[in-house]
């Protein structure tokens, strides 16, 4: 049962004032009702005041209201009025019955109030458990989710602070530690500020900890399952890469080697003339360059897949990058048209990686449009620079555009003609994104394809080269 000591000073004063006002109003009401009913039967009206006070401020203030009501009933309404005495026996009976009834009513009102309070508390705990379940099991990283769940718990329990930590932690002079267990193993710790009421600590221990243990165990199990899924996906991806690499080795590496070996044998024949020797030497040189570029692409892709392609940014000129990329792609200068606006500033990036990215784009575009030059344009736009590599080839079907940057992916025409290794565009995207840029493709089927690169611009310091 409730006690006056459970009430704050302000609540006690408020309850007392309400009790005085209620008894006074009821006494006046009984005066108005005396002409309608016998006085001895009007004592029941005071029960309204008793129920009002007991249901809100507890049984003891309700009993005090009942005694004050009995006294007012005796003084003002039971003869002889104006004295605490009773002349007739039936008035004694009426007063005792009223007092007992008022005390019982106070007790029942207190029980109803307690049950209502407990129901509200249980509902709050259920809401808290549902919120913690949403936070801990929503699929994000567990450590930030633990902080969010702890903040919600502190608000729900009116705690100055609370934290949920993985592993075992001991209590100290500031916090009380509640171990969170899964079976016999401790999986975490709930830390609650020590300077809180004992009832709050008991509530946390008995009501919150069991639910939190189950949710934390489920979250940890979810993370373990997700880790297994990620590992399985990585292994499957590794198998795909290995299979594609074997295919590349079986054809793309074998083809130039076969051509080189086929050209090397006649070079030892002393009966070939100078023109034939020059032609065979050109075959060896071209196929060797092709093999070298393929090996470079394989090495670049390996570094990108391993996350080891860390850029070394410096201030670079896009004009110089484009010229070097044309040479790296093995294209004649007349095969590429470079248009760089005069107001394009220096770019903070890794020049070698940008060169490799542009070189692969040029090789790809030149392969699809051998009759027309490839156009490279660059211009500033707000806080970035835009680069376009445009060809006049057959374009890319809409269903294949989202896949062209995947390693070892080749379009239908490439697969049929055994052209390309499917590495160049994947490497271009990797190097562009490593330098904080974006790359995408725009294509009109049957007309042209444009690869677009956006690189961020930074203020060029005065010490940077012009």
Structure overview:
The protein is an alpha+beta fold and 466 residues long. It is built from twelve helices and ten strands. It has helices spanning 9-33, 46-57, 59-76, 89-136, 142-156, 198-267, 274-305, 318-328, 351-368, 398-401, 412-417, 424-434; strands at residues 162-166, 175-182, 185-193, 314-316, 336-340, 347-349, 374-381, 384-391, 438-444, 448-456. The strands form three sheets. Strands 5-7-8-10-9 form a five-stranded mixed sheet. β9 (438-444) and β10 form a beta hairpin.
What key attributes describe this structure?
five-stranded mixed beta sheet, single chain, three-stranded antiparallel beta sheet, Helix Hairpins, alpha+beta, 12 helices, disordered N terminus, 466 residues
SSE arrangement:
Blueprint: H1 9-33, H2 46-57, H3 59-76, H4 89-136, H5 142-156, E1 162-166, E2 175-182, E3 185-193, H6 198-267, H7 274-305, E4 314-316, H8 318-328, E5 336-340, E6 347-349, H9 351-368, E7 374-381, E8 384-391, H10 398-401, H11 412-417, H12 424-434, E9 438-444, E10 448-456
Parallel strand pairs: 5-7
Antiparallel strand pairs: 1-3, 2-3, 4-6, 7-8, 8-10, 9-10
Reading the helices and strands in chain order gives: HHHHHEEEHHEHEEHEEHHHEE
Low-confidence stretches: 1-6
Biggest sheet record: 5 strands, mixed
Q: What is the CATH fold-level name of the largest domain?
A: Heat Shock Protein 90
Structural class by SSE content = alpha+beta
Tell me the radius of gyration. Answer: 43 Å
Assembly status: single chain
What order do the strands of the largest sheet run in, or round the barrel if closed? 5-7-8-10-9
Mean pLDDT: 78
Q: Give the terminus-to-terminus CA distance.
A: 85 Å
* Number of helices, counting only DSSP H or I runs of 4 residues or more: 12
């Amino acid at each position: 049962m409730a006690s006056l000591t459970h009430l704050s000073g302000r609540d006690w004063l408020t309850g007392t004032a309400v009790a005085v006002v209620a008894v006074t109003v009821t006494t006046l009401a009984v005066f108005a009702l005396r002409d309608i009913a016998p006085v001895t039967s009007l004592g029941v009206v005071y029960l309204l005041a008793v129920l009002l006070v007991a249901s809100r401020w507890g049984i003891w203030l309700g009993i005090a209201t009942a005694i004050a009501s009995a006294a007012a009933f005796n003084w003002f309404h039971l003869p002889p009025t104006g004295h605490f005495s009773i002349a007739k026996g039936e008035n004694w009976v009426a007063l005792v019955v009223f007092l007992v009834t008022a005390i019982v009513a106070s007790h029942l009102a207190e029980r109803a109030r307690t049950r209502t309070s407990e129901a509200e508390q249980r509902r709050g705990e259920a809401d808290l458990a549902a919120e913690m379940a949403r936070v801990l099991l929503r699929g994000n990283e567990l450590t930030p989710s633990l902080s969010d769940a702890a903040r919600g718990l502190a608000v729900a329990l009116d705690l100055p602070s609370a934290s949920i930590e993985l592993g075992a932690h001991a209590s100290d002079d500031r916090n009380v530690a509640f171990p969170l267990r899964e079976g016999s193993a401790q999986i975490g710790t709930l830390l609650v500020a020590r300077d809180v009421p004992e009832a709050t600590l008991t509530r946390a221990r008995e009501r919150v900890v069991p639910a939190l243990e189950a949710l934390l165990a489920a979250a940890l199990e979810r993370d373990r399952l997700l880790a297994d899924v990620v590992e399985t996906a990585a292994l499957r991806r590794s198998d795909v890469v290995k299979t594609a690499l074997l295919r590349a080795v079986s054809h793309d590496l074998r083809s130039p080697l076969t051509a080189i070996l086929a050209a090397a044998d006649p070079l030892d024949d002393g009966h070939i003339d100078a023109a034939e020797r020059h032609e065979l030497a050109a075959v060896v040189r071209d196929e060797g360059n092709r093999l070298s570029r393929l090996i470079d692409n394989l090495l670049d892709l390996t570094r990108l897949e391993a996350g080891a392609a860390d850029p070394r940014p410096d201030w670079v000129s896009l004009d110089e990058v484009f010229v070097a990329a044309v040479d790296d792609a093995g294209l004649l200068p007349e095969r590429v048209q470079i248009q760089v606006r005069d107001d394009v500033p220096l770019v903070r990036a890794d020049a070698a990686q940008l060169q490799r990215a542009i070189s692969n784009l040029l090789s790809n575009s030149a392969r699809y449009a051998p009759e027309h030059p490839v156009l490279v344009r660059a211009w500033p736009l707000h806080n970035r620079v835009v680069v376009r590599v445009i060809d006049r080839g057959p374009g890319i079907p809409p269903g294949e555009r989202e896949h062209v940057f995947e390693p070892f992916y080749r379009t239908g025409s490439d697969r049929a003609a055994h052209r390309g290794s499917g590495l160049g565009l994947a490497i271009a995207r990797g190097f562009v994104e490593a330098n904080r840029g974006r790359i995408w493709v725009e294509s009109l089927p049957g007309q042209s394809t444009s690869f677009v690169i956006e690189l961020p611009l930074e203020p060029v310091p005065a010490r940077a080269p012009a």
